[in-house]
Amino acid sequence: MGTLSSMETTAARLFRLLSLLQRRREWTGGELAARLKVSGRTVRHDIQRLRELGYPVDATRGAAGGYRLGVGAALPPLLLDDDEAVAVAVGLRTAAGGTVAGIAETSVRALTKLEQMLPSRLRWRVEALHSATVPIHGPEPTVDPDTLTTLAAAIRDQQRLRFDYRSHDGTTGRRSVEPYRLVHTGRRWYLVAWDIDRNAWRTFRVDRLQPRPPTGPGFEPREPPGPDIAGYTAHAITTGVYRYQARVTIHGPAEAVAQQITPTIGTIEAIDAQRCILRTGANSLDDLVAWVAVIGFDFQVHEPPELIDHLGVVIGRLRRARQTSAMARDRPAATAR
After folding, report:
1. Which domain holds residue 58?
2. Is residue 202 scored above 70 in pLDDT?
3. Is there a domain that residue 140 lies in?
């Protein structure tokens, strides 16, 4: 039997080996031996010990062979450094109040297990952040986690997907698509996909769709609708589905305007250091006026023409409100005299 110190040395080396395997997709035996400062034979023995502990380590033979962590039937213990452990804990706390239905309870259970293993120095960091943060949970729709995993698997396997979909106007219908990406805005989930029947790219709210299995057949991926899928989705959900689509020049830096306009309201494109273009949409002209008026910068409306005309209506409304408010304010003073 080995001594306690040799057992500790072996355990420490196993942790270092596991850390290396988690850090990069594949290592050669020689690279691992050099990093651990041991022989190739010791590396092979340590790889076998990791397998006995439940870590699926795959090996390939030949001159270009090496080792990589595989996918196992069970989840073995994870090796996390301090920053990774804190990041996971914070992520679980955030997920507990997230937009995926049923994930809150699961996240709390996972967080409880993790915090039981955290050393005091890390538990203090997580608790300090939690106690100093006050989340605001709005009435946002939640999505079924099974729906998310079904969509993600269809994207990964390049399988056609069929689902029932409820549009923003309340109408329902069957869609057949080639799924491309899931996009999360922080409030809602969207699926970007090629709509087979409409022969065009479309963006679908995940909380409004119900998959109809099975998936398939397979398909060859198309050229995506743009190099920036997040930007494409932001444009689609802020302008494309609305009755009125506005283009407005804002006389202010794009960085400053972006702090006032969220990605779910509109997209910002810089013209120069002091001007930018806002593209947004709404079914109400009053909504469009409100969004551009409260930004805090001068602006010029280019389109739609209905919005240009409606500015005059709103200006008249505001002028009348100012006059009646001033008269009501001054009336008591006049009576007192």
Report:
1. 4-69
2. yes
3. no
